[in-house]
Amino acid sequence: MILQPLEPQDAEQIAELAADFYPEEMLYEAGDIASALATAVREGGNFSVGLVERGNLLAYMLAWLEESRVEGLRESVVLIDDLALATGEAEDLRLLLSHLVQRLEQADLTHLAIEGSLLPDTREMFWGLARFIGSLGYELVASQDYWEEEVGAELTWVRYERPAEAEVEVQVSVAEVWDGAEFPE
Questions:
Q1: If you average pLDDT over every residue of the chain, what do you get?
Q2: Is the pLDDT of residue 172 over 70?
Q3: Fewest CB atoms less than 10 Å from the CB: which of 22, 44, 83, 102?
Q4: How far apart are CA 169 and CA 185, in angstroms?
Q5: If DSSP states are collapsed to H, E and C, what string results for 66-134?
Q6: Could you give phi then psi for residue 85, rounded to 5 degrees?
Q7: Domains of the chain: which residue ranges?
Q8: Under CATH, domain 2-176 is a member of which superfamily?
Q9: Could you read off the pLDDT of 71-90 as tens digits, one per residue?
Q10: Which of 90, 183, 102, 174 is nearest to 138 (CA)?
Q11: How far apart are CA 181 and CA 185, in angstroms?
Q12: Which of 132, 94, 114 is CA-nearest to residue 45?
């Protein structure tokens, strides 16, 4: 298996893999995914990566620079916008996260927080990797459960920071957390 940066031309494979994991109401068209990736590439903040074996996408993480989802906190963060693991293996998540941190180090962006929203099954996997995430130099500094009506499930918004750079105390309420909409309609 190899790690491969994801770009707009990979959108069709991403959409196909996502269809195996997400309910229909959470799926995005390949064109929307390609557009989001193109914007991230154009803005110089695309950290999306896929795990590929023999040309088949087995796992992916869509990650790019965004503004924090915390209301009133106007700062850039790395948003893990989407994640899918066909293998369901925590080791694959470790590979994706390690690669993300390595790319952030290369870009001198490790001072940025990492944010995202987790589905229930992904949440359990992330909680189980707390020590590993700590070994990458990040710790969970804030989380908030919220009900996502479109999905019909409770999601968890999370924020990870490097401890030495955790200057902003983040306190959120359900009303302040991002509503889960990744792509404009």
A1: 85
A2: no
A3: 44
A4: 32
A5: EECCCCCCCCEEEEEEEEEECCCCHHHHHHHHHHHHHHHHHCCCCCCCEEEEECHHHHHHHHHCHHHHH
A6: -125, 100
A7: 2-176
A8: Gcn5-related N-acetyltransferase (GNAT) (3.40.630.30)
A9: 778 899 999 999 988 877 78
A10: 102
A11: 9
A12: 114
Q: Which two tokens stand for residue 87?
A: 């293998």
Q: Which of 111, 122, 128, 100 is nearest to 18 (CA)?
A: 122
DSSP secondary-structure letter at 180?
S
**Two tokens at 61?**
């993480």
Handedness of CA 144, 27, 112, 87 (dihedral sign): positive
Tokens of 82: 């989407």
As given in the structure block, the two tokens for residue 185 are 């309609």
